[in-house]
Design brief:
This is Transcription factor Pcc1. It comes from Hyphodiscus hymeniophilus. InterPro entries: CTAG/Pcc1. This protein has about 120 residues and is an alpha+beta fold. The protein has one domain: Alpha-D-phosphohexomutase, C-terminal domain (TATA-Binding Protein), CATH 3.30.310.50. Strands 1-5-2 form a 3-stranded antiparallel sheet. Helix 1 crosses helix 2. The radius of gyration is 17 Å and the shape is globular.
Length: about 120
């Protein structure tokens, strides 16, 4: 068992995992969101892409990790819960814009042809 050591300077933390259809989209979202730096020195944020875990139909309750990194993980650390909330709210607004652009410009996001031309 591993234990995560809590940073005494940044005691409040949150991890957000966002599954996306392809590794290309996860990487693009990470690059787009990474551009905006946190404005406050009281908040730290990091991005990672991770492989997805999917159920193995051959064996019940067995998870198989794929090699394609389709999960965008965002880790936040802050000095207070309020600072964490403010930072995450701003991140969610930016994420909404990024996903909206992907939906409009990339057919992979929906997985179906929307019929727009």
């Amino acid at each position: 068992m591993t234990t995560q050591v809590q940073d005494p300077d940044f005691p409040c933390s949150l991890v957000i995992d966002l599954p996306l259809p392809t590794s290309r989209l996860a990487s693009a979202a990470s690059q787009a969101l990474r551009v905006d730096k946190e404005l406050s020195p009281l908040v730290r944020r990091s991005f990672y892409t991770l492989p997805a875990a999917v159920s193995n139909p051959a064996e019940d309750a067995t998870l198989v990790h794929t090699s394609e990194e389709t999960i965008l993980r965002t880790e936040y650390k802050a000095t207070t819960n309020r600072m964490l909330r403010v930072a995450v709210n701003g991140f969610m607004e930016s994420l909404s814009v990024v996903l909206g652009v992907m939906e409009e410009l990339d057919i992979d996001v929906l997985g179906v042809d929307s019929g727009k031309e």
